[in-house]
Amino acid sequence: MSKNISELGEYLQTKLKDAVLEVHEYKGELCLLVAREKIEKIMKFLRDDKECLFKQLMDVCGVDYLERAERFEVVYNLLSLKHNLRIRIKLSTDEQTPVPSVTEIYPTAGWFEREAWDMYGIFFSGNVDLRRILTDYDFDGHPQRKDFPLTGYVEMRYDESQERVIYEPVKLAQAFRNFDNLSPWEGGAFGVPGDEKAAGG
């Protein structure tokens, strides 16, 4: 298995030398770092070349590295049933630069790209149905970004007087409250039945 992966890595570096930036093996799987603008060429090759035949796109996901200039990484996981191999393709982008969609090559990428758009704000050019998929259509922001506030921007509730769901700015009513040190949840200074056994001990 490891030998096959090494051979495949060398083969891909030879065939796709203008598109593959880095090749390495991680936990028994081949990983390629590729040029963003060449992703369609790479995916077609991996799907159709007889030495590859990665016919199944298992997943497309985003990763946020806030400290990097190109903060987002898009990760594609492919499977070849013919050769019993998996491969991971990675590319990087920023908040403004779109990533070419691979929906023409792998139709299943449509929903995965929508999820990456919804959660991270990664834009995929060529995806004709790039809508939110996990959050509400009126949701503000992208919740998996490292700089997204834990409280969010708005809260939703049902208003009985208006008989509809309304959105309001987040209110942190309990931000500054007095702690009751006698509360059992906050470490009270009282005895618990059975403590006397430990003291006599």
Cα shape: extended
Rg? 25 Å
Q: Give the second-level CATH assignment, the architecture.
A: 2-Layer Sandwich
Put simply, the count of helices is 4
Unreliable parts: none
Strand order of the largest sheet: 1-2-5-4-3
According to DSSP, the number of beta strands is 9
Distance between the termini: 60 Å
Summing up helix and strand content along with how strands pair, one would put the structural category as alpha/beta
* H/E topology pattern: HEEHEEEEHEEEH
Per CATH, the class reads Alpha Beta
Q: At the fourth CATH level, what is the homologous superfamily? A: NADH:ubiquinone oxidoreductase Nqo5 subunit
Give a description of the structure.
The protein has helices at residues 2-15, 39-48, 109-120, 195-200, and strands at residues 20-26, 29-34, 56-64, 72-80, 85-93, 99-100, 124-125, 154-159, 164-169. The chain has 201 residues and is α/β, with parallel strands linked by helices. It has a single domain (2-188), classed as 2-Layer Sandwich (Beta Polymerase, domain 2), CATH 3.30.460. The strands form 3 sheets. The protein has a 5-stranded mixed sheet. The radius of gyration is 25 Å and the shape is extended. The relative contact order is 0.10. The model has no long low-confidence stretch (mean pLDDT 87).
Question: Can you summarize this structure?
Answer:
This protein is of the alpha/beta class. It is built from four helices and nine strands; from the N terminus they run αββαββββαβββα.
